[in-house]
Amino acid sequence: MKRHWFLKGLKFAFFAVLFLTVATFVVMRLWNWLVPPVFGWHLINFWQALGLLILCKILFGGFRGGHRQHWQSRRRMMERWEHMTPEEREKFRSSWRGRCGNFGAAAGEAKAGTVRAG
Fold first, then answer.
1. Are 46 and 32 within 8 A, CB to CB?
2. Structure confidence by residue, pLDDT tens digits, 31-46
3. Within a domain: residue 36?
4. C-alpha distances in angstroms, 99 versus 21, 40, 117, 118?
5. What b/e readout covers 19-42, taking b as 16+ CB neighbours within 10 angstroms?
6. Which among 12, 28, 78, 92 could disulfide-bond with 49, CB atoms 3.0 to 4.6 Å apart, if both were Cys?
7. Which of 62, 65, 97, 92 minimizes the C-alpha distance to 78?
């Protein structure tokens, strides 16, 4: 059983390193293809591209599980929705219609009324 676990871990590590290597080469190639001609900056090597990937992950992605946070907030909203009365739900819908514009049948009716004969 332990050997099976070890092989799974080794396989995961291999594919993680492979993915990281491919992603680094993609970043390096894109940078070297786009940035020097457009901005006049220098070419970068593999290790600089890896550092750029890590820097972007720190600045923009962080190291926490972002997907888990998304699902927790979605579940919380669904629980709130289930506890709303029909009047509260309609009030919520109307407040979002005001923010996002008219969708659905109301938008279709508005388009049909604006057709002009040319």
1. no
2. 999 999 999 999 999 9
3. yes
4. 44, 43, 32, 33
5. eeeeebeebbeebbeeeeeeeeee
6. 28
7. 92
Joined tokens for residue 33 = 């293809």
| Residue 57: pLDDT over 50 | yes
- Our CA dihedral for 82, 84, 88, 90, rounded to 10 degrees, sits at 20
Task: Flag whether 18 is in a domain.
Answer: yes
Average pLDDT over residues 65-69: 59
**Parent domain of 36:** 2-63
CB proximity list for 41: less than 8 A, separation 6 or greater:
35
What is the pTM (predicted TM-score) of this model?
0.51
